[in-house]
């Protein structure tokens, strides 16, 4: 388990992360969400020990990550910029061989399977790859790495719909067949939300939401009906958005509704539906703006 305690990060006088406290459990798929510049990449780099200048503590199974190299061998940060400029004249298979030598839990057979699945030619030069295929190479490294915790920063960049789907299928496969944990930072929420088991939303340098997806689904609700009746029933609830279309109001909440409250809304002619994670994210971050 990764445990983050009282984590703070500044760039000069700019507070990027403010007193973060959370845990990352083994074998789960996490969604890390937030608007541009909110600190998602910084957080992932801190967790993977690529940034070591911060206050607070990051532990992996009770070992302080930045003091223990064996901890960092188990946590891997993946982004589209994995291949340095100095190696862009090399071939795909050379980069993969280099990665296999650097990563102690590398799965060579799985790497070969992934090359076939994603139809990536290992004999091609890196400089001849499209932006999407360069990112795909980084994702293959992440998937085949065997790292217990793999942190993906915007993994869908440049990928077509088919390869995005295949990538998410591989993430689910690893979660089901091993204790590997994936943290996915993405702006394409509607495509990824079906695989998330836990969701962390960053806003204003802090954690705005950190919940199990089943809890989120039970609390993220949209109620459509007569505004006056709806608001009377929901007067003590956490209302995150209100919209009107003529005489009809759409009220979004992030809160529990008990049986009695649901019955009263139904008797008032209101319709209750679940909000998608993307709509919840938009409402929450707009509310906090």
From TrEMBL:
Gene3D superfamilies tied to this protein: P-loop containing nucleotide triphosphate hydrolases
SUPFAM superfamilies the UniProt entry points to: P-loop containing nucleoside triphosphate hydrolases
EC primary class: hydrolase
InterPro entries named among the record's database cross-references: AAA+_ATPase (IPR003593), ABC_transporter-like_ATP-bd (IPR003439), ABC_transporter-like_CS (IPR017871), P-loop_NTPase (IPR027417)
Record keywords: ATP-binding, Hydrolase, Nucleotide-binding
PROSITE patterns: ABC_TRANSPORTER_1, ABC_TRANSPORTER_2
Domain spans labelled ABC transporter: 2-229
Pfam families to which the protein is assigned, alphabetical: ABC_tran
Gene Ontology MF: a single term: ATP binding
EC number assigned by the record: 3.6.3.-
Protein name per Swiss-Prot or TrEMBL: Zinc import ATP-binding protein ZnuC
């Amino acid at each position: 388990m990764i445990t983050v305690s009282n984590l703070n990060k500044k760039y000069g006088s700019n507070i990027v992360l403010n007193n973060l406290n959370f845990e990352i459990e083994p074998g789960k798929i996490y969604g890390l969400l937030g608007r541009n510049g909110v600190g998602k990449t910084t957080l992932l780099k801190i967790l993977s020990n690529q940034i070591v200048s911060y206050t607070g503590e990051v532990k992996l199974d009770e070992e302080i990550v930045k003091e223990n190299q064996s901890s960092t061998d188990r946590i891997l940060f993946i982004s589209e910029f994995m291949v340095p400029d100095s190696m862009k004249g090399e071939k795909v298979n050379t980069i993969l061989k280099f990665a296999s030598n650097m990563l102690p839990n590398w799965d060579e057979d799985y790497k070969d399977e992934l090359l076939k699945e994603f139809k990536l030619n290992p004999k091609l030069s890196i400089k001849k790859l499209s932006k999407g295929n360069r990112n795909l190479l980084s994702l293959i490294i992440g998937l085949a790495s065997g790292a217990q915790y793999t942190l993906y920063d915007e993994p869908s960049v440049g990928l077509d719909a088919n390869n995005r789907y295949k990538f998410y299928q591989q993430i689910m496969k690893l979660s089901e067949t091993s204790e590997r944990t994936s943290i996915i930072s993405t702006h394409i929420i509607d495509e990824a939300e079906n695989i998330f088991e836990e969701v962390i939303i960053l806003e204003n340098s802090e954690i705005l939401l950190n919940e199990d997806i089943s809890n989120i689904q039970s609390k993220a609700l949209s109620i459509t009906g007569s505004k006056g009746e709806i608001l009377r029933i929901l007067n003590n609830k956490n209302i995150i958005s209100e919209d009107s279309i003529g005489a009809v109001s759409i009220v979004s909440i992030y809160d529990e509704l008990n049986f009695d409250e649901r019955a009263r809304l139904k008797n008032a002619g209101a319709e209750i539906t679940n909000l998608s994670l993307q709509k919840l994210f938009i409402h929450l971050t707009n509310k906090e703006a």
